[in-house]
Amino acid sequence: MSDRTSARTRRTVRTRRTAGERRTAPGVPTAEEPPAAVPGAGPRRFLRAALARIPLPLRGLRPRLLTSFVLVAMASSLGTGALAFREARTGVLQQSQDSVINQFRKSVDAVAPSIPIAPNQADLQSAVDQVLYANRSSGWRIMATYGGHRAYAPSAGFVELSPEMLRSVRDRRVAVFQRMNVDGRPRLVVGMPVTYTWGEGLETRLSGLVMYLEVPQTTEEGYVEAMVHGIERATLMALCLAVVLALLAASGVLRPVRALRRATRRMAAGHLDVRLNVTGSDELADLSQSFNETAAELERTVRELRRLEAQGRRFVADVSHELRTPLAAMSAVTDVLDLEGEGETGEALRLISEGTNRLSGLVNDLMEISRFDAGAAELNRDEIDLAESVRRSVASRWRQEQVETRLPGPGELRARVDPRRLDVVTANLIGNALRHGEPPVRLTMGVRVDGAGTAWAVIEVTDNGPGIAEEAMPHIFERFYKASTSRARSESSGLGLAITAENVRLHGGRIRAANLPRGGAVFTVELPLHRDDTDTEADTGAGGGGSTR
Question: pTM, whole model, 2 decimals?
Fold first, then answer.
């Protein structure tokens, strides 16, 4: 065959290789069209629903950074690996097939001059044997066809040829190839028509003789698999590196965030002097600087408020103390004048006496509140009969038809309490119920044991009034709070329930207010029973509340 034919053969081989590989070669990565985007809010709703199902710990900054780094590394490594795989695979297969086709062409060119123009079966068999002998270590299988004759080497049998290949070698003067899978193994099949020259112009014509080559590509497949394994290892290393980088980045980002979280918790616990170390000039450093400025301003403001509060408390205590002596003298004088005054003069003296008594009571309440604020309130405990003490407190102030009592029998309920403070608690609760509720007022006492096994003495005071307004319920124990602004000049000072709550807390007890379903309000006091004399007294610095309804 001529060099011109060989050149055309090589050009045809490259062209047919591309077409054949795309049609039959398995495992070649192909680009897929991305799915069309769905317009509207559907994807956004789906994304929000998917994020809502993620557990809360996985929504933190560290998991998100880790996921982002891993996804970027995976996409980069897989994309780079796919491109490298495609180029390397193409190069390996191209080199392999070019080498096989060139070797096959040389072998056929060497045998073609000895083949007759019209070969018989023996001629074909001799030709394939010679080609196979020249390449006996390559694992080739050769087949020659001419008309109805077939010759095989080294043994009968050949891969089934596709119609496209048969048509190409019948009509064209160039070698063609095709990759096939036979029993899961890759094979390269080459078809090469034998031509001859005719006449003075050396016209090239097809002789009708076609030589076919079937060669396994196990070695090339091994190279491809080695490349796949190498890409997998590189991807794994890239992912590991991405995880390490993500952890380092998350650590660098989360370190100041954790410090800020600890600082805010300490500030919430009352440590207003907490500050952050500011390093760098990035956004987190600006955030730390802003936190320090906020904390400093908050500390200054709270310090000023505490100073003003302490100054106000000292003022109230000093004024109350200074007013106590003259008010005591005025009360003594008005008591004497009440006995002697008659007519209009007597009425005026009685008004002065009532105002003096109210002012004296307010001063006494302010002195008591000042002692609570200063932490100077003390308990003088004594083991008493609670029911008997409450019974005496009620009998000394109100008539029997005003207050209904339901108390345990004598000696059934004893506890170590401060009798004076228990008397104040009882008097304030019943007095508040009579002023702002409707008689009869009911007082009950009993014992309750909680789940921890602690026994509590329970005192309940109920009335038949309209109850407590819902908006007033959170403020009922605040100082100087009155549920109705229309009673701003009532006989109550607004400190009774505040003092009651402080006395209950001083005993380590609890107090609460509620409305009854049938109407009326109920105040419940719980005092612990069987407490040791050495028990630490309750903190009196917590600001109690007080109100009248």
Answer: 0.46
